Each structure stands twice: as structure tokens, then as C-alpha cells.
Amino acid sequence: MSSTAPKGLFDPKDFDIPDHYQHYPGDTAEDYIGPFFYYREGNTCYTAFRVKPHHCNMSSSTHGGILMSFADYCLCMAAFTEDINSVVTVNCNSDFIGPSQAGDLILGEAEVTRQGKNIAFTRCQLRVNDQPVLTASGVIKLFRKW
């Protein structure tokens, strides 16, 4: 962790990720798997993850479980807004499209396609060098602030 990052946060610069991304604190599983980073622009949530050698399988490509975990993060972050206290994945569907490997910067783009009071339907696409790696859709349970 960089000494310039607030306590408990990962600095995107330490992972060669553009510094307009930020780390969402509070999910130790995502920190252990990733860490993952995000920023919002309008209704779209953009995410980033730098693949390290320990994220790869015996074929030297990013492990599918790591990609699915990152996709889950993307889907949840799309639904997670200021009026939401927390979110939980109800359903997640993933389609593997292309490869990624250690050193790659995986960029995600996620959005809510439909939302009710307590549930959101989301989708995302993960890319490396503008080439699709994985697409996913999910159903996310919303827990609103009181």
C-alpha cells in the first residue's frame, strides 16, 4: 500500500491503474482476491483490476473464478449508490469470451438495466486492450438506508 493512500485503502498507482479509479473499502474478500478499483460516470460504473501471476491457472491465463469474482464486484458496484446501504448478489451469469494473463489490465463497464425498490438487474463486460474477456449479468438485492 502506498503511504499516500488513506489507511485501509489500496492506491491504484501501486497496481499501475489510472489514479482516477478508487478503492472501495470494506470488503476483505475482494481485497484479498484483487484488489479491485472503480469510478462512476453518469449511470455507468467503470472498474479496473491488474492481473498478477497468482491470479492465473496452470495454463498461465487468469483463473475463471477470479474473473467471475471481478464480474460480481462490477455488477454489485453498478447497483451500489448513495441511497443504498449494502448489496448482495442473488444471481450471477457469466460467459467467458477471451483470454487474459498476468500483467493485463482488465477494465470493466457495468450498468443497471432495470431496477425495482429492492432489486436491481445489472450487466457488465470485462475487456483487455478493448477485447472482450467476459460478459456477465446479475440480479442484485438492494438494502436501502433508513
Notes on the protein architecture:
With 146 residues, the protein is α+β, with helices and mostly antiparallel strands. The protein has one domain (18-144): Thiol Ester Dehydrase, Chain A (Roll). The chain is 15% helix and 41% strand. The protein contains 2 helices and 6 strands; from the N terminus they run H-E-E-H-E-E-E-E. It has a 6-stranded antiparallel beta sheet, covered by helices on one side. The longest helix has 16 residues, at 64-79. The radius of gyration is 15 Å and the shape is globular. 32% of the residues are buried.
Question: In a nutshell, what does this entry contain?
Answer:
With 146 residues, this protein is α+β, with helices and mostly antiparallel strands. It has one domain: Roll (Thiol Ester Dehydrase, Chain A).
